[in-house]
Design goal:
By secondary structure, the chain is of the alpha/beta class. The chain has one domain: Rossmann fold (3-Layer(aba) Sandwich). The protein contains eight helices and eight strands; from the N terminus they run ααβββαβααβαββαβα. It is globular and about 50 Å long.
Length: about 325
Amino acid sequence: MMNYQEEFMKRVFKQIIMVLCFSMIISIFPAMAFARDTVADAQEENHEVWNIWGVTMAVEEAAAEYDFTGATDDAEFVPHLNAYLLEDQSAAKGNVIVLSGGGDRMRSNPGEGIPCCEWLNSIGYNAYLLDYRVQPYESVDATLDAQRAVRYIKYYSEEKGIGAIDHIAAMGFSAGAMHVYAQSIMLSGDITPDSIYPDYICDDIDKMDASVGVVACVYAAGSTHDTAGAAVDIANPVLILSEDDPNYPQSWPAFFFAGASGHFASGFCVTAYLALNPVTECELHMYGGINGPFAMGYNYAGSDQMIDQLETFLDVEFGHRNRSNKES
């Protein structure tokens, strides 16, 4: 008989998968406009590539039989971080892990993750683009990759000379935002991958605290209905924490961005904001007239304010600006 924690985690990730089903439908077609990413692309741009799992990663036994025909990656793919490190680490204001969207079928790095990391560097933050697992892997595997990325950066921070290691944020687009949010609530702290895959043997990296200081979700794909039109109970631990939950209240501030119309009017962002706002620092920004993935917001009226709003939020939460005057 599985223990309470295993039952709880499996129930939670069933809810995540239901929400991500909607993400796959609305994200895959716009995301196909972006080129597929490869490790070689990152190496050509002179970014270090870090294999976050080493020899063994947390995965189900059936993964050995996965069919990769038509998939973005092949069977040899390993989750990795593309490190966008500032030249002067003593001047770094913090570190931000970035997950592109793509409906769990691909990673929209050229349109989302790469420009985001470049922008983060321009405002003084180290950035780490996570190439996480997509189909045919299980959705929870991408969330585990996000957890591992947090721990990997903390574990190797001294060896790699990473500055401002006490300031770590996670940011995601669409399906990537869902994984960022899920990791921050359900796979943070000292929770380890063997809570999902009991046969996984934890290593020293898994002993690191998997918590982040700030979470930013950009048009996190979600819906109050699944792909069959059936209502989804949004009052679940992924969205709303009860006072009996050990993670209540959350200490990490959360920032949500979404369109106000069309597919990218994210009900998830609104619901998550309403759930978290009473217990932590929270902001929700909705942009009207958007009918596609707005990425960093450069090409849409209204959402072009996103980068300034996010910079302010990061700077305030990490102590680089006065909280009493965010506009300063």
